[in-house]
Amino acid sequence: MNTIPLTHILFVSTALFFIGMYGLFTRRNIITMLMSIELILNSVNINFIAFNKYLHPANLDGVFFTIFIIAIAAAEAAVAIAIIINLYRNHKSIDIEDAAEMKY
Amino acid sequence: MSITVVLFWFLTALALLSAIMVLLSKNPVHSVLWLIVVFFAISGHYILLNAQFLAIVNLIVYAGAIMVLFLFVIMLMNLNAETEPQKNTWLKLAGAISGGSLLLILVSVIRSATDMTGRTAQVGEGNIGLISNLGKALFSEYVVPFEISSVLFLSAMVGAVVIGKKD
Amino acid sequence: MNAIILSAILGVIMMFSGIWVNNKATLRWIALAGLLVLLISNIAEMYGYRIWNVNVHNMLYFDRFGLLFNSVAIGSTFIFVALSGSDINRVGKYAAEYYTLIFFVLTGITIISVYTSLLMLFLGIEIMSIPLYILTGSDKRNLKSNEASLKYFLMGAFSTGLMLMGITLIYGATGSFSIEVLNNPAIAQGVSFLEITGMLFLLVSMAFKVSAAPFHFWTPDVYDGAPGVFTSFMATVVKAAAFIAFVKLFDARMSYSSAVVDWKMLLCILIIATLLIGNITAVFQQSVKRMLAYSSIAQAGFMLFAVFSMNEMAKEGIIFYAVSYSLATIGVFAVLLKMKDFTFEGYNGLAKSQPVLAFANTVFLLSLAGIPLTAGFFAKYFMLASVIQTGHYLWMVIVAVLFAAVSVYYYFRVIQAMYFKTGEGETENIHPGFKTGLIILTVIIILLGVAPNLIINFLYF
What we know:
Chain A is mostly helical. In chain A, about 75% of the residues lie in helices and about 5% in strands.
């Protein structure tokens, strides 16, 4: 039949979440780290929609949360890009390890 | 094996493989392009889950706006495979092992959760994700968070200008 | 609702006044007037006068606790702008925008102190964080400031990701975002693994936000790199607000014992680690600014006791702690910003060159260390007494007192430098108004140290 167990979808989202987390911790390119954050947020979105559809179909709470996440992710990305450009202007590098003025 | 199930597995494989490719590719431009593939696959999932509006929004906002922003920045900074910094292999291995074990724990939690097993829904039916239903609830029940999020956009806008402007 | 809407409107007003007002001093007066209006409107709401009657659909609930904290946060911000306004104006060209962002941060704070829906928690924390990323990086030519801003953003976004994962698991388990559902004893005792995993994710992400060890590693770098004025704001008002959100979220978790996860044990580990790392590392710092960053971690350890014991006394205590800690830290930073040299040596001989500053600074530091007759003493007393009231983990009180004794060492190093060492004690030009402000703040701190009920009675009139 046309049915897919919920656990399958949750597996997809969990795997995406940890791929994002892995990228955030192991990549040094700031832009790629930002992309990893987007992956994490997307995995959460899938989770919300799957839970909404499978477990709580009476209202649309999960879908709305997803809309807010998407909107806020866009705002966050804009701010992050501004910060990165400013850093690049002063630093000429996007390597997170080069951003080590703080080490004392 | 119905068409939905086939589609589900195809989209899942596509999403996961391209997500891994985002992290593996040396060239940041390729990373962005793979990420766009991930977003398309996820939008496919949304459509399977009856969230049609979200599928479109996801494409417009993520693939259309955010990713173009990323591409612009990458090209502005002239990044390519040569400038790509690499972390050492041991750190990557440690990250993979710790991330993998966390993943295993979470997956086992999900699989063993009693209120989850055997839950299936008719995928590909229903109209809860259509714009008219969403709009009604958004402007009645969710109007307070909706209005409040405008403050967030305003502050992001002010902030991006303050930081990004050349002085 | 008054404070939420009004702070957003005032932010927009500040933004536009940046176009028409060129004088930075005038901008500061506008901001002060705005904060005063905000404070009055919020106090009016505590007495039941509402300007707007909005149907919030059970997403916000304006209880005494949240509203009192809002007053405290707005009042502290008022004192912060009054004392350090001239330093805000010196950070960069965009003074009006900085005030705008401070007002938007206040919007976020006023939301997370009264939220009842996890959606509002998420929105509030984001509204609070995004302006802070900008304020951290506002010293645009300074590489340290840029890096601090980037680090803060990455850590903030990551912890937001964790928080969202937690919320989604809780949604899956309970089908709702309401914390009333979460605070239901049946659910709090842990019915499904999904819900418990979700709460664990939320615990980690909140620990990130309040910089509890072992999730504190971003704090010293960010606090050190950010322009000093904004560090003062971040370390006080914003941190206290995150604690209020933390307390509201884990209310039921700590009140009922769970069969599956020993939440008190988890919190206990967090507290001990935070106190240990914060206090021990602070001892070895050479820069007063960095020492204050670590001391803010140590103070967070004390504030975590409120989440740990979670009774009436803890709720009174966290508000009082927020007041005393915020006021004292704002004062210490205000003096720090006037110094030419941020190391301990820079303070040498300050008592000779600027006796008023040195005396006020001494009172603030004594309050932070928790010496009797200052507000800090009662703050720490309330926290420890709340733990004793629960009757469990009494040994933690002893550990906490020991660490408080350690903290006396590094606070006294500054006092020692000011009074017992010879040096220039060079400062910027001190305005007489600044000295008056410091004296008023000193009087408030001593007054609260003698009569703490002045604040707490507001919870029950």
